Amino acid sequence: MKKKKYTPSEEECSLQNHPIFQRLTDEEFELVNYEKKCDFFSRGEILYHEGKRMSDFYCVNKGIVKIYKTGIDGKEQIIAFAKQGNILGYRSILSDESACTTAKIIEDAVLCFLPSQLLVDLVKKNASFSYEIMKLTCQELGEANSYILDIAQKTVRERLAEVLILLKNKFGLDENKTLNISLTREELANIVGTATESVIRLLSEFKDDDFVELNGRKIKILDLQGLTKTASF
After folding, report:
1. Rounded CA separation 92/70 (Å)
2. How much is the pLDDT for 1?
3. So what's the architecture of 154-231 in CATH?
4. Residues spanned by CATH 1.10.10.10 within the chain?
5. Does residue 72 carry a pLDDT above 80?
6. Greatest Cα-to-Cα distance within the chain, rounded to the nearest angstrom
7. How many Å apart are CA 183 and CA 192, to the nearest integer?
8. pLDDT band for position 3 (50/70/90)?
9. What is the homologous superfamily of the domain 19-151 according to CATH?
10. Measured between alpha carbons, how far is residue 43 from residues 73, 77, 95 in Å?
11. Which residues make beta-bridge pairs with 37?
12. Three-state SS across the chain?
């Protein structure tokens, strides 16, 4: 018997927690709610592929999505992660280009998706909304510039320490000081921009230095100050 797919609740499909939509008028927000579709996505599902045209943009209500580019050798380069309150796919729509990245679910998620033309119309008609979209774009550009600088000037050890700090800042720690995101060693390597073997070796070194404690994919932060110093952050 085929397992019934989980249906998100009305609360899980709410867009109230998305700061970007707080700039809309009541009438515009009502239109967004009318146009939106909401669905559950399991770990491993692809939202959209690099090179495909975007017919919708996505709002993350629950779960975690990784955004990555694929190199000529087929290796992933993780660009960013999206969590509750983030939106995806908007830049490709506004630039009228194919998707420049692929988005994949890495933690079971609930997402709302809205027609691309609705985004274009809102940007044209609502200056406050347009300004928030512009700020998001500038923020992503700043993060990309920082990543390029790190690749050029920092060692792999420094970059891995910085990645752990950034993951801590974005997703936080649980009551046991463990990162609230579970990543494979390969995924960590794809963020840092190095070989998986290098990440495994460096994590072992961080463990020996009492910076972290490792339990499978779970990483517990023991010495944030030590990681910060190592990262030259």
Report:
1. 17
2. 45
3. Orthogonal Bundle (1.10)
4. 154-231
5. no
6. 57
7. 13
8. low
9. Jelly Rolls (2.60.120.10)
10. 24, 18, 29
11. 113
12. CCCCCCCCCCCCCCCCCCHHHHHCCHHHHHHHHHHCEEEEECCCCEEECCCCCCCEEEEEEEEEEEEEEECCCCCEEEEEEECCCCEECHHHHHCCCCCCCEEEEEEEEEEEEEEHHHHHHHHHHCHHHHHHHHHHHHHHHHHHHHHHHHHHHCCHHHHHHHHHHHHHHHHCECCCCEECCCCCHHHHHHHHCCCHHHHHHHHHHHHHCCCEEEECCEEEECCHHHHHHHHCC
Report how far residue 118's alpha carbon sits from residue 2's, in angstroms, rounded to the nearest whole number: 35
If phi > 0 it is left, if psi is from -120 to 50 it is alpha, else beta; for residue 89 that is left
